[in-house]
Amino acid sequence: MAQRDHTFHAGERAVQRRAEVASDWLESAAGFVRPAMPQQHRDFFENLPMLFLGLLDPAGRPWCVPVFGPPGYSASPSPETLVLQRAPVLVDELGLMLTPGSSVGLVGVDLTNRRRNRMNGRVRHTSGGGITLAVDQSFGNCPQYIQTRSQTVARAEPSAAAGRSSSLADPAVRRIIESADTFFIASRAAGPLEGGSAGVDASHRGGRPGFLGINDDGSLSFPDFSGNRMFNTLGNIESDGRIGLFVPDFETGEAVVLTGRASIDWSAERAGAFTGAERIVDVRPEAIWYATATLPLTATLAEPWPALEATGTWDEVHLAALRRDGYRRFRIVSKHRESDAITSFYLTPADGGPIAPHVAGQFLPIRLHDDDGPILRSYTISQGPNGRDYRLSIKREAHGRASRLLHDRLGRGDTIEAASPTGDFLLDDSAQPIVMLSGGVGITPMVAMLDGLVSARRDGAPRREVYFIHAARNSASRAFRGELEALARQYDWLHLFTAYSAPGTEDRLGHTHDIEARLSMEVLAGLLPFGGYQFYLCGPESFMRALYTGLRDMGIDRSHIHYEFFGTGELEAPDELAATVQLPKRATVSFAHSKVQTEWTAQSGTLLETAEAAGLKPSHNCRSGKCGTCATRLLSGNVHYPRKPLISPAEGHVLTCCTVPMDEQVEIGL
């Protein structure tokens, strides 16, 4: 206990108690905090191009600023000493304290490999622009939430004075904050600062872009994810509350530097709304500096921290608050006829809020209502993300309950309900040429992907050749003709081919279409040299099966063939599916919410069918693993997907429409 009390100050111990950190773990953790730097830390700090310091201004407010220089600017002549040959950025502009005895917190992060070490100490003396620091505490940190980046040293060193006092109203400041996936934080304890655990601390925070949020009242908020459980930063906030943030834009060298007061929100409800958060930290800025050139390097994102998928953003929190029962009301703002059977519906949020982002190729689950009750459907978003609206391009089916309602009864000004976009039919991230093969309404994800490629190309993405090959009966049934032909005239990397199986009297070969035949492998062989392509298929089942089989027969690897299956089942032959799994002859399936238990056998079908046979009425829609409506939590046991679903459920959840028990005891949340 004495070792822990000496290492951690009262604020840190208070947070540790509230977070219910085990005392034996803290005894162990205290042993990692050393009064001097081990050799690996000394070497680490000496070889980094940049370090981040927590320093105080004359009012006692912490600021977090970088220090950098050519190789050798940082040196450790002894385990108790670190010498910086350069003054940190913005020292003069912010009036930061570097007088002997001033407390300093320091964190170094190697962006190329996620190594991170920290040091707390005091200024021993300054000379000729250099600073000698005396070490009080030295300790390492785990690599959690650090994004790996490839670094390029800037041609010219940035000027410390290249910036200005600013506010959150500045668009540049908001852009940097709202797009940040990394920031550095300085904090301090209350009372006289004599170094050691009662001094200033500098640390790193990371998350998905959008994890640092700007609130309507001018404050900032960020989540506190699971970490090393020592709570150095939160302990300082508990003790004093004054903090400083350095929010970099690694692509441009810009940064937002601010100081303010922070508080910890321990509300389980608020933390629970932000995926991955254990608590929320709120910051009220008191002074903000926008620096246009503060970094000696640019750093391009190479790999996000792998566990970031299990964390959220403030946009997701705000959007979730707008949904009821998982759905949100959208208004049809326009309706455009694309062909004799396909009409596009443009949707914007009826509540006036932002739309949830999507990736080109994903679909939107919607809920409609008629005299017979609710109707659940999923339709591909037929355009790339634009931040304004969704476009659903829907074919009217003669016996389609949802499509007839949309086409015949709903129009501009009417509302429908929509969940969040989802789906895994997305473009790969290789540089290989793309072949898009679509038939009929299967054109919708292809148009969206093409739209996404056009936007990416405008933003500087590498060029990729695209062969957009579409099959239709004739011009009357062909959707998006004008849109696609305009793009083909504009971009020489887009090659557009159209096959008509039943040309109309007004159709002219070579003008309205390129081929008069059903799309087949023989036709494709005449269009493509074949080699190194990524193929994307979507359309009627017979169309897709014929092309998939033909591509495989030509030796195209399965990993190069991607498809969106509108129906039930798979394109792969049984011997191409996952290796056979040993399933139990019988299993007991428990439905936790309904408090029902039943027996499953091989004749019972999926878990969804098993639930229905037991008298339950679980939510579902597509029955093919496409929409996610049937997802529920897996509480115990393991399940097997006899056929691959089209989307991946959230962690800890399963799609009941396409799973069967793999253990003799399975419990799910229905």
Automatic annotation (TrEMBL):
Residues 587-670 form the 2Fe-2S ferredoxin-type domain. PROSITE patterns: 2FE2S_FER_1, 2FE2S_FER_2, FAD_FR. It comes from the Bacteria. Residues 325-428 form the FAD-binding FR-type domain. Transmembrane segments: none annotated. PANTHER family: FAD-BINDING, PUTATIVE (AFU_ORTHOLOGUE AFUA_6G07600)-RELATED. This is 2Fe-2S iron-sulfur cluster binding domain-containing protein. It comes from Billgrantia sulfidoxydans.
